[in-house]
């Protein structure tokens, strides 16, 4: 894991203690001392599989078009038997010759080590009236992978906050510092970066990692000074 140098722009807003005692029942309590920390942490989120997208062009006589969806899925299974294919688009039209035509888009997450020769496999899985074309291979982390990385980075920031509070309480023994709030703003940002090239094996696909950046504003508050 890499860390950005904390912007721990330690803004110690030490509000001066009230010089005179406040009357009992005063609506304004003694002011608290606050420390505002700005922390930034980052890590690379890598994925072990890719989203493979396939375009299917189908053309059949009306009498032969009763199960186009099933035939398309069978061809996709022949192309990548272990994949769980999802059809994301299914459009039908009729041309001037009376043929019924379908434009179908499908996608699946496929392991990196199973991507070899995907373009050739699409060609081999095609049949008369049903043409498969590799539309793209995209290496991006899944939502679950991103959320797991975000949770891990937040735990790391919480650990650093705990260390800051321990250091403050050790230094200022007459005060009791506690965390007031932790705001993640903005919560996350991602930037895709190349991880490794798979030009031959995966028809030009390039695996990437996503850089997760988490920014946190931490407010630590001390117990108000006693009013004499």
From TrEMBL:
<keyword id="KW-0732">Signal</keyword>
<protein>
    <recommendedName>
        <fullName>Oxidative stress defense protein</fullName>
    </recommendedName>
</protein>
<feature type="signal peptide">
    <location>
        <begin position="1"/>
        <end position="21"/>
    </location>
</feature>
């Amino acid at each position: 894991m890499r860390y950005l140098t904390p912007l721990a722009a330690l803004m110690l807003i030490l509000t001066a203690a009230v010089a005179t005692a406040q009357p009992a029942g005063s609506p304004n309590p003694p002011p608290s001392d606050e420390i505002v920390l700005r922390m930034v942490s980052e890590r690379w989120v890598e994925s072990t599989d890719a989203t493979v997208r396939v375009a299917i062009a189908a053309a059949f006589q009306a009498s032969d078009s009763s199960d186009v969806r099933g035939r398309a899925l069978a061809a996709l299974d022949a192309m990548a038997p272990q994949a769980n294919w999802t059809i994301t688009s299914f459009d039908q039209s009729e041309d001037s010759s009376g043929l019924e035509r379908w434009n179908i888009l499908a996608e699946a997450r496929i392991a990196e080590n199973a991507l070899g020769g995907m373009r050739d496999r699409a060609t081999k899985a095609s049949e008369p009236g049903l043409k498969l074309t590799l539309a793209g291979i995209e290496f991006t982390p899944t939502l679950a992978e991103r959320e797991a990385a975000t949770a891990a980075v937040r735990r790391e920031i919480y650990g650093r906050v705990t260390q800051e509070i321990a250091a403050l309480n050790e230094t200022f023994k007459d005060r009791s510092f506690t965390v007031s709030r932790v705001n993640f703003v903005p919560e996350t940002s991602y930037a895709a970066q190349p991880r490794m090239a798979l030009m031959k094996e995966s028809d030009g696909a390039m695996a990437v990692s996503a850089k997760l950046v988490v920014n946190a504003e931490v407010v630590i508050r001390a117990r108000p000074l006693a009013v004499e």
